[in-house]
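cron nightly-structures :: item 1 of 1
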Amino acid sequence: MHALPFLVALASAVLLAPALLRELSAAGRTRVNYRGRPLPFPFGVLVLAASLIALIALMLLERLASSELFHPEELPIAVYALGVLALGLVDDTLGERHGTPSSPRGWRGHGAAVVRGELSTGALKAAGSLGLALFAINLLDLRPGRTLKALVLLGAGLLIGSANQRPLWALGLFLGPALVAGFVDLRERAMLGDTGASLLGAVAGLWLVLSLSGTGQVVALALLAAITLYGELRSISELLERTPGLRELDSWGRPQ
Protein backbone atom coordinates (compact mmCIF):
# COMPACT_ATOMS: atom_id res chain seq x y z
CA MET A 1 0.00 0.00 0.00
CA HIS A 2 1.45 3.34 -1.08
CA ALA A 3 1.65 6.51 1.01
CA LEU A 4 1.80 8.59 -2.18
CA PRO A 5 -1.99 9.20 -2.49
CA PHE A 6 -2.03 10.57 1.07
CA LEU A 7 0.94 12.86 0.42
CA VAL A 8 -0.32 14.15 -2.94
CA ALA A 9 -3.82 14.80 -1.58
CA LEU A 10 -2.37 16.50 1.50
CA ALA A 11 -0.21 18.78 -0.66
CA SER A 12 -3.19 19.58 -2.90
CA ALA A 13 -5.27 20.59 0.12
CA VAL A 14 -2.51 22.79 1.54
CA LEU A 15 -2.16 24.60 -1.80
CA LEU A 16 -5.92 25.00 -2.36
CA ALA A 17 -6.93 26.05 1.18
CA PRO A 18 -5.98 29.79 1.01
CA ALA A 19 -7.69 30.29 -2.36
CA LEU A 20 -10.85 28.51 -1.19
CA LEU A 21 -11.01 30.66 1.95
CA ARG A 22 -10.82 33.80 -0.20
CA GLU A 23 -13.40 32.58 -2.72
CA LEU A 24 -15.96 31.56 -0.10
CA SER A 25 -15.59 34.90 1.67
CA ALA A 26 -15.79 36.90 -1.56
CA ALA A 27 -18.93 35.02 -2.61
CA GLY A 28 -20.58 35.72 0.74
CA ARG A 29 -20.64 32.01 1.60
CA THR A 30 -20.39 32.36 5.38
CA ARG A 31 -22.14 31.05 8.46
CA VAL A 32 -22.08 32.36 12.02
CA ASN A 33 -20.23 30.06 14.43
CA TYR A 34 -20.93 29.51 18.13
CA ARG A 35 -19.05 32.73 19.02
CA GLY A 36 -21.17 34.76 16.63
CA ARG A 37 -18.36 35.16 14.09
CA PRO A 38 -19.18 34.79 10.35
CA LEU A 39 -16.78 32.27 8.82
CA PRO A 40 -16.32 30.86 5.30
CA PHE A 41 -18.67 27.90 4.81
CA PRO A 42 -18.79 25.02 3.88
CA PHE A 43 -15.03 24.54 3.99
CA GLY A 44 -15.48 20.79 3.69
CA VAL A 45 -15.54 21.24 -0.10
CA LEU A 46 -11.75 21.50 0.21
CA VAL A 47 -11.66 17.73 0.68
CA LEU A 48 -13.70 17.17 -2.46
CA ALA A 49 -11.58 19.51 -4.59
CA ALA A 50 -8.21 18.36 -3.25
CA SER A 51 -9.00 14.64 -3.49
CA LEU A 52 -10.25 14.96 -7.08
CA ILE A 53 -7.19 16.96 -8.16
CA ALA A 54 -4.93 14.46 -6.44
CA LEU A 55 -6.80 11.58 -8.08
CA ILE A 56 -6.24 13.06 -11.55
CA ALA A 57 -2.53 13.59 -10.90
CA LEU A 58 -2.11 10.10 -9.46
CA MET A 59 -3.93 8.40 -12.31
CA LEU A 60 -1.71 10.21 -14.83
CA LEU A 61 1.38 9.22 -12.87
CA GLU A 62 0.17 5.63 -12.68
CA ARG A 63 -0.25 5.52 -16.46
CA LEU A 64 3.12 7.17 -17.19
CA ALA A 65 5.05 5.03 -14.70
CA SER A 66 3.14 1.84 -15.54
CA SER A 67 2.93 1.22 -11.79
CA GLU A 68 -0.07 0.52 -9.58
CA LEU A 69 -0.54 3.27 -7.00
CA PHE A 70 -3.97 2.13 -5.83
CA HIS A 71 -5.05 -1.13 -4.25
CA PRO A 72 -8.34 -2.61 -5.60
CA GLU A 73 -10.06 -2.04 -2.23
CA GLU A 74 -9.57 1.71 -2.62
CA LEU A 75 -12.17 1.97 -5.41
CA PRO A 76 -15.21 1.23 -3.21
CA ILE A 77 -13.68 3.46 -0.52
CA ALA A 78 -13.43 6.33 -3.01
CA VAL A 79 -16.98 5.79 -4.25
CA TYR A 80 -18.37 5.79 -0.71
CA ALA A 81 -16.34 8.81 0.42
CA LEU A 82 -17.25 10.87 -2.66
CA GLY A 83 -20.90 9.94 -2.20
CA VAL A 84 -20.85 11.07 1.43
CA LEU A 85 -19.17 14.32 0.40
CA ALA A 86 -21.86 14.94 -2.20
CA LEU A 87 -24.67 14.24 0.30
CA GLY A 88 -23.07 16.53 2.85
CA LEU A 89 -22.77 19.29 0.26
CA VAL A 90 -26.46 18.89 -0.61
CA ASP A 91 -27.31 19.20 3.08
CA ASP A 92 -25.14 22.32 3.42
CA THR A 93 -26.56 24.08 0.35
CA LEU A 94 -30.21 23.01 0.25
CA GLY A 95 -30.77 22.40 3.93
CA GLU A 96 -29.66 25.77 5.25
CA ARG A 97 -33.02 27.55 5.23
CA HIS A 98 -30.92 30.69 5.14
CA GLY A 99 -29.31 29.79 8.46
CA THR A 100 -32.50 29.97 10.49
CA PRO A 101 -32.56 28.19 13.86
CA SER A 102 -35.66 26.27 12.76
CA SER A 103 -33.58 23.97 10.55
CA PRO A 104 -34.03 20.36 11.78
CA ARG A 105 -31.12 18.74 13.60
CA GLY A 106 -30.50 15.21 14.77
CA TRP A 107 -32.46 12.04 14.09
CA ARG A 108 -35.62 13.32 15.78
CA GLY A 109 -35.58 16.67 13.98
CA HIS A 110 -35.08 15.21 10.52
CA GLY A 111 -37.52 12.37 11.19
CA ALA A 112 -40.19 14.83 12.27
CA ALA A 113 -39.59 16.88 9.11
CA VAL A 114 -40.15 13.78 6.95
CA VAL A 115 -43.37 12.95 8.84
CA ARG A 116 -44.62 16.48 8.19
CA GLY A 117 -44.00 15.93 4.49
CA GLU A 118 -41.06 18.33 4.31
CA LEU A 119 -37.87 17.74 2.33
CA SER A 120 -35.20 16.92 4.90
CA THR A 121 -31.75 16.95 3.37
CA GLY A 122 -30.45 15.48 6.62
CA ALA A 123 -32.76 12.48 6.19
CA LEU A 124 -31.61 12.19 2.57
CA LYS A 125 -28.02 12.16 3.75
CA ALA A 126 -28.79 9.55 6.40
CA ALA A 127 -30.54 7.26 3.95
CA GLY A 128 -27.80 7.65 1.37
CA SER A 129 -24.77 7.21 3.60
CA LEU A 130 -25.93 4.32 5.80
CA GLY A 131 -23.01 4.85 8.17
CA LEU A 132 -23.56 5.13 11.91
CA ALA A 133 -20.11 6.65 12.38
CA LEU A 134 -21.19 9.57 10.22
CA PHE A 135 -23.98 10.47 12.64
CA ALA A 136 -21.76 10.15 15.72
CA ILE A 137 -19.13 12.47 14.24
CA ASN A 138 -21.77 14.92 13.09
CA LEU A 139 -23.08 15.18 16.65
CA LEU A 140 -19.62 16.43 17.64
CA ASP A 141 -19.57 19.06 14.89
CA LEU A 142 -20.79 21.90 17.13
CA ARG A 143 -17.43 23.36 18.15
CA PRO A 144 -14.32 24.04 16.06
CA GLY A 145 -11.94 21.11 15.75
CA ARG A 146 -14.01 18.47 17.52
CA THR A 147 -14.41 16.26 14.48
CA LEU A 148 -10.70 16.52 13.70
CA LYS A 149 -9.70 15.57 17.24
CA ALA A 150 -12.15 12.66 17.30
CA LEU A 151 -10.75 11.32 14.04
CA VAL A 152 -7.11 11.75 15.10
CA LEU A 153 -7.67 10.04 18.46
CA LEU A 154 -9.62 7.22 16.84
CA GLY A 155 -7.01 6.75 14.13
CA ALA A 156 -4.14 6.76 16.62
CA GLY A 157 -5.93 4.19 18.76
CA LEU A 158 -6.61 1.95 15.77
CA LEU A 159 -3.03 2.23 14.50
CA ILE A 160 -1.57 1.38 17.89
CA GLY A 161 -4.10 -1.31 18.72
CA SER A 162 -4.04 -3.12 15.39
CA ALA A 163 -0.43 -2.34 14.35
CA ASN A 164 -1.84 -2.15 10.82
CA GLN A 165 -0.94 0.83 8.63
CA ARG A 166 -2.81 -0.42 5.56
CA PRO A 167 -6.14 1.31 6.41
CA LEU A 168 -4.26 4.60 6.86
CA TRP A 169 -2.90 4.50 3.31
CA ALA A 170 -6.16 3.11 1.89
CA LEU A 171 -7.95 6.23 3.19
CA GLY A 172 -5.09 8.58 2.32
CA LEU A 173 -6.71 10.23 -0.69
CA PHE A 174 -9.38 11.74 1.58
CA LEU A 175 -7.64 11.68 4.95
CA GLY A 176 -4.91 14.16 3.95
CA PRO A 177 -7.31 16.91 2.79
CA ALA A 178 -9.63 16.17 5.73
CA LEU A 179 -6.79 16.88 8.17
CA VAL A 180 -6.06 20.22 6.48
CA ALA A 181 -9.74 21.24 6.45
CA GLY A 182 -10.12 20.12 10.07
CA PHE A 183 -7.13 22.21 11.16
CA VAL A 184 -8.56 25.33 9.48
CA ASP A 185 -11.85 24.59 11.25
CA LEU A 186 -10.02 24.21 14.58
CA ARG A 187 -8.35 27.60 14.17
CA GLU A 188 -11.81 29.14 13.47
CA ARG A 189 -10.85 30.42 10.03
CA ALA A 190 -13.73 28.53 8.38
CA MET A 191 -16.50 26.04 9.18
CA LEU A 192 -16.49 22.49 7.84
CA GLY A 193 -20.24 22.19 7.46
CA ASP A 194 -21.90 18.84 6.90
CA THR A 195 -19.76 18.43 3.78
CA GLY A 196 -16.61 18.10 5.88
CA ALA A 197 -18.09 16.55 9.02
CA SER A 198 -19.83 13.86 6.98
CA LEU A 199 -16.59 12.94 5.24
CA LEU A 200 -14.66 12.76 8.53
CA GLY A 201 -17.40 10.54 9.91
CA ALA A 202 -17.23 8.32 6.84
CA VAL A 203 -13.44 8.06 7.11
CA ALA A 204 -13.78 7.15 10.79
CA GLY A 205 -16.33 4.45 9.99
CA LEU A 206 -14.24 3.01 7.18
CA TRP A 207 -11.14 3.03 9.38
CA LEU A 208 -13.02 1.03 12.00
CA VAL A 209 -14.23 -1.51 9.43
CA LEU A 210 -10.78 -1.92 7.86
CA SER A 211 -8.97 -2.25 11.20
CA LEU A 212 -11.27 -4.27 13.48
CA SER A 213 -12.39 -7.87 13.52
CA GLY A 214 -16.08 -8.76 13.36
CA THR A 215 -16.34 -8.71 17.15
CA GLY A 216 -14.52 -5.39 17.35
CA GLN A 217 -16.87 -3.88 14.79
CA VAL A 218 -19.90 -4.96 16.84
CA VAL A 219 -18.40 -3.35 19.96
CA ALA A 220 -17.60 -0.16 18.02
CA LEU A 221 -21.12 -0.09 16.60
CA ALA A 222 -22.61 -0.39 20.09
CA LEU A 223 -20.40 2.45 21.39
CA LEU A 224 -21.27 4.70 18.45
CA ALA A 225 -24.96 3.93 18.91
CA ALA A 226 -24.68 4.89 22.60
CA ILE A 227 -22.94 8.16 21.73
CA THR A 228 -25.56 8.93 19.09
CA LEU A 229 -28.41 8.21 21.49
CA TYR A 230 -26.82 10.37 24.20
CA GLY A 231 -26.37 13.20 21.70
CA GLU A 232 -30.06 13.01 20.80
CA LEU A 233 -31.25 13.13 24.43
CA ARG A 234 -28.57 15.25 26.09
CA SER A 235 -25.94 17.82 25.14
CA ILE A 236 -22.49 16.46 24.32
CA SER A 237 -21.14 20.01 24.59
CA GLU A 238 -22.37 20.29 28.19
CA LEU A 239 -20.85 16.88 29.01
CA LEU A 240 -17.47 17.96 27.69
CA GLU A 241 -17.65 21.31 29.49
CA ARG A 242 -18.22 19.74 32.91
CA THR A 243 -15.70 16.90 32.56
CA PRO A 244 -12.10 17.78 33.57
CA GLY A 245 -9.60 16.63 30.99
CA LEU A 246 -12.19 16.44 28.23
CA ARG A 247 -12.90 20.15 28.69
CA GLU A 248 -9.22 21.02 28.17
CA LEU A 249 -8.89 18.64 25.22
CA ASP A 250 -12.00 20.08 23.61
CA SER A 251 -10.73 23.66 23.83
CA TRP A 252 -7.10 22.90 22.93
CA GLY A 253 -5.94 24.56 19.73
CA ARG A 254 -8.78 27.07 19.41
CA PRO A 255 -8.05 30.80 19.38
CA GLN A 256 -8.78 32.44 22.71
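cron nightly-structures :: done
The longest strand covers residues 30-32.
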